[in-house]
Amino acid sequence: MIEVRLFAGLRQGREKIYHWEKGSICNVQDIMDRLGIQRKEVNILLINGFHQKPETEVRDGDIVSLFPAVGGG
Amino acid sequence: MAYAYYEKIARINLTTGTVTVEKLDTDLAKKFIGGRGLGTKIVYDEGCATVDPLGPDNKLVYITGPLTGAGAPSSGRYMVVTKSPLTGMIACSNSGGIWGAKLKYAGWDALIVEGEAPEWTYINIVDDKIELLDAREYLGLFSEECDEKLKEKHGKDSSVLTIGIAGEKKVLLAAIMNDKDRAAGRSGVGAVMGSKKLKGIVVTASKKNADEVLASAEALKAANKDVMVNIRENGLTGGGLRALGTASLVNVINGVGSLPTKNWQESYYDQAEDVSGEALAEKYLVKAGACHRCPIACGRIVKVGDKVVGGPEYEPLWAYGANMANSDLASINEANMWCNEYGLDAISVPCTIAAAMELYQRGAIKEEDCAGAPLEWGNAASAIEWTKRMGDPKTELDWLMSSGSARLCEHYGMPEVSMAVKKQEMPAYDARGVQGIGITYATSNRGGCHVRGYTIAPEVVGLPVQLDRTVTNEKAFWSKTFQDLTAVIDSMGLCLFTSFALGAPEYTKLLNAACGTEYTPEQVLEIGERIYNIERMFNKAAGMKPEDDRLPKRLLEEPIPDGPSKGLVSKLPITLPEYYKVRGWEAAFPTDETLKRLGLDECVGK
Description:
The complex is a heterodimer of chains A (about 70) and B (about 600). Chain A has about 70 residues and is of the alpha+beta class. Chain A has a single domain, classed as Beta-grasp domain (Ubiquitin-like (UB roll)), CATH 3.10.20. Chain A is about 10% helix and about 25% strand. With about 600 residues, chain B is an alpha+beta fold. Chain B has three domains: about 210 residues, Aldehyde ferredoxin oxidoreductase, N-terminal domain (Aldehyde Ferredoxin Oxidoreductase,  A, domain 1), CATH 3.60.9; about 180 residues, Aldehyde Ferredoxin Oxidoreductase Protein, subunit A, domain 2 (Orthogonal Bundle), CATH 1.10.569.10; about 150 residues, Aldehyde Ferredoxin Oxidoreductase Protein, subunit A, domain 3, CATH 1.10.599. In chain B, about 40% of the residues lie in helices and about 15% in strands. Chain B is built from 24 helices and 19 strands. In chain B, strands 2-1-6-3-4-5 form a six-stranded mixed β-sheet. Chain B has a six-stranded mixed β-sheet with strand order 8-7-12-9-10-11, with helices on both faces. In chain B, helix 2 crosses helix 19, helix 2 packs parallel to helix 21 and helix 12 runs parallel beside helix 14.
């Protein structure tokens, strides 16, 4: 099982959280494709709390978090 | 007129009730820019480092930068520089709204306030006229009502800066408020005003801009146009902050397991979503709010009951939320409102309550001490009640709480429970999970603070590049560079948030256009370094010791117990010596060689 968490504007028209069987999902790009999220929409991409790239392989049990441009201080 | 200044400073002596006009030294402005830099130079030269911060010899410098009100993006800021009663070191707190711009439009670059008024006073400025008026009828009012009454008296075009009840009582966590809910929040600057019996400063300006002092209004307009492209095209400044405000960080920082929880005993809050920027926008947001000439609009205007008020930024959302294990978002909006109404630092106040909750957990504070507001984790009603008590302290515990976590925890013999640096509470990023920000905290001249070198931008948000948050490599360099650039931005009169989209070349372009200078970006960064070093020399004169550059023991010795950053500790013992090396400092202070390199000959041998 893979958990996908979406934040801020990426939630528009989508769920906050998805739980998917790993199945044919190889990397984060596959997840973004399935959700119709473009690369330029994602500013922060985390797997289990650590920054990764769309090409990073996803493993069973991973939590993938996608954020658009967010921040401040 | 030169260097985008009117070259006019008003020195207001409250003891004698006299106002004298002095000429701003443009040579000094070229060396320190203005705002934070020039303000620090003034208080350093005038010997404030060694005075009682709450005595008549301390001075308050309200100072603009060359870009304040000049039409550049997010250019409404002013700075308050003084000696902090909280830290005993340099205080420089800045604020937005429109007050700073109005001061400039009225023809004043800065105000130096000294002495102590015999009776409660406020300063009324109408263009070049400055008068001292009786403030007694405004005492004891909440910030919003006080702002409204003073505007009623001085006209709707006036802009009001005041202290709240907390400042009147010289509470060490008192802020200075302007334009109702904007705050120069940190380091107890409101208490310094209170110690002088100065309730407020009202400014009315006939002019609507200060274009006449610009080296070239045309050149600045062109530079603005260029940098606005960067601001608009950047996802954060071009829309992200307007949509969710800084509150969007709650889920990000929790996502990287670095959201301090229960007074930093943990660093992952499983109910973060309930108190996130997303939840705030969904349930309570009325609209985004913007300061003067700000295209970013990070402010939150929210509903609290049937009132519409300034809402919480990321820091209070965290401090009243995860840091107290409180998932009641409505209570956070309300507590934040009370911070504004009493004129309190909305970071240090909730952080001190969180420290008190840990003291309660450990049995040091007992239920019977709490007068009906037990300091249990997650008790939202108590958080609100203690905020009010800290804003208007009456009992011994009220006073202890209102003096910040360092003094509170020291009193109970548990100094390690205070999550503060130099007696000022650290903000919402766990330095165990994000290595660079720990350097910023430990070496911040004004004590625990994130906006003195916001390495969260590269370490978490990926701006301008994405760094590995867990490693120490090059973090000393990043922290120093961000500290120096921030000193420049704070001195120009711009908002730090522009730096998500702009870098040293863009700031240099704006500065050169406004001032008619020909700085290179390297020279501008060197000015920032000079400012950081003179602040440090102020602290040295004030009695700072090398061991004051520290982090609480918990961050060095207690690994994060759970969440994505489980097992991590701060590696400050590795990064701090590296930092001193890149700064040219030894044992926490600049060497004479460094001071000479930076043209700070007046500090050599001190």
